[in-house]
Specification:
This protein is of the alpha/beta class. It contains 19 helices and 14 strands. It has a five-stranded parallel β-sheet, with helices on both faces. It has a five-stranded parallel β-sheet with strand order 7-8-11-6-12.
Length: 453
């Protein structure tokens, strides 16, 4: 079953429903027909509809009342009113309520198809505008000079890309820039943070579901693969998916086909997949936490985004960009670093990468009035009281890890510390940890902890 716009026709005349429906189907649209207002509203609650044709004069619930109900519950769906004997006043009233357009019977099919085309194009532009506004303040125009040629080369080939790099290096920015420079630039860019969605919901998030397919599935829902059709799907933190989710994604990647949860029909999509992770994927594959076949499918073009400490030549450009972004024009020109002040930044290790630099410069732009930032101010706002670094965060050893890795790393370190405190006595350590000795032995084996003799 292909993905194509769905048009709902609500009209009490069999002839209109059939003729208009047949013409629209011949043009490649999916068509649903309803003989009255309540039936049409029921369809909208259970189906994904892209456009509605609505008759003005119908027995029972009139077209204007149906229009109000649709506008209240489904405000984004464009509605085209149709009537054979409506006055100008009715047409004006319909438009004021929220109708997209008004066409008269007998229908001119050329005009009707033009109305359909225009309505769907405007909906697409509205969607793109919403996406643009949602990401307006992302630093998605600032990518290091060393990455730009690699991005350009990756953008022109319509294949899968895997972006590797530490947290805060700008992997999402790279993905967006690849999409922006590709032939799919005017099509959707849909992002999924695989680490932020519980495993029980990830399949529905990716592939959608049918009404009633599980508890709380009160209506059909498009998944991210469908939303990204003809565009780009960005799977962020892809290595945090469970193995069961990886298996389903592998099939969708291989075949460009999938089923919604609870659905019987197979959907086909044309999606370019860009994935990203901060993990060492070969290590994850060797440990059995990431499918090797999925890795090879996604890693057609690998891009490694270097940490900020390895591309200090980008610091001047980044500093200028963020200062211009955060500085209030009423404050006058943004400050500049003296050579000694800039050296403080150049010497900093930037463990938080571009994200840390962005927050630091935003703090400076709000707090400092001087036109020149010397080494003392640079250190103070960077978190230096003197020339020495601030005490490290207790989370520092695990800050670069994902949640599950961090849990394991902390648990291993905690057990090792307790073993030392108890002179490597298993029974006493287990008692101290609130575990059975057998459970402690299992954990020692899991974490490859050797007990000193």
């Amino acid at each position: 079953m292909s993905l194509k716009p769905t048009i709902l026709i609500i009209d009490d005349e069999d002839g209109i429903r059939n003729v208009l429906g047949d013409v629209l189907q011949d043009e490649g649209f999916a068509v649903i027909r309803a003989a009255d207002g309540p039936a049409g509203l029921k369809v909208l609650k259970s189906e994904i509809v892209d456009l509605v044709f609505l008759d003005v004069w119908m027995p029972g619930m009139g077209g204007l009342d149906v229009l109000r109900a649709i506008r209240e519950e489904f405000p984004e769906v464009p509605i085209v009113m149709i009537s054979g004997h409506a006055s100008i006043d009715v047409a004006v009233k319909a438009v004021k309520i929220g109708a997209w357009d008004f066409v008269e019977k007998p229908l001119s099919m050329d005009k009707t198809l033009a109305v359909v085309s225009n309505a769907l194009k405007v909906q697409e532009l509205k969607r793109e505008n919403r996406e643009l506004k949602a990401h307006l303040f992302l630093e998605d125009t600032m990518i290091g000079e060393g990455m730009k040629e690699l991005i350009r080369q990756s953008a022109v080939v319509n294949t899968r890309v895997m972006i590797l790099g530490e947290n805060g290096t700008g992997k999402e920015l790279v993905a967006r820039e690849i999409h922006r420079q590709s032939t799919r630039a005017r099509r959707p860019f849909v992002e999924v943070n695989c680490a932020a969605i519980p495993d029980t919901l990830l399949e529905s998030e990716l592939f959608g579901h049918e009404k009633g397919s599980f508890t709380n599935a009160v209506a059909r829902r498009k998944g991210r693969f469908e939303q990204a059709d003809t565009g780009t799907l960005f799977l962020d933190e892809v290595a945090d998916m469970s193995l069961s989710a990886q298996a389903k994604v592998l099939r969708a990647v291989q075949e460009s086909r999938f089923e919604r949860i609870g659905g019987e029909g197979t959907l086909s999509v044309d999606v370019r997949i860009i994935s990203a992770t901060n993990k060492d994927i070969p290590v994850e594959v060797a440990a059995g936490r990431f499918r090797e076949d999925l890795f090879y499918r996604l890693n057609v073009v690998p891009i490694t985004v270097p940490p900020l400490r390895d591309r200090r030549e980008d610091l001047p450009l980044l500093i200028d960009y963020f200062f211009r972004k955060f500085r209030n024009p009423a404050q006058g020109p943004h400050p500049v670093f003296s050579p000694e002040g800039f050296q403080v930044l150049a010497d900093h290790s930037w463990p938080g990468n571009i994200r840390e630099l962005k927050n630091y410069l935003e703090r400076l732009s709000l707090m400092i009035d001087d036109s020149i930032i010397g080494p003392e101010e640079a250190r103070a706002f960077l978190g230096h009281a003197t020339g020495a670094e601030l005490p490290p965060s207790p989370l520092s050893p695990w800050a670069h890890l994902g949640l599950n890795e961090a849990k394991d790393a902390f648990e291993k370190a905690f057990i090792e510390e307790k073993l030392k405190e108890n002179n490597y006595n298993i029974s006493r350590t287990a008692q101290n940890l609130g575990l059975y000795a057998s459970n402690l032995h299992t954990k020692l084996k899991k974490f490859a902890i050797e007990v000193e003799k």
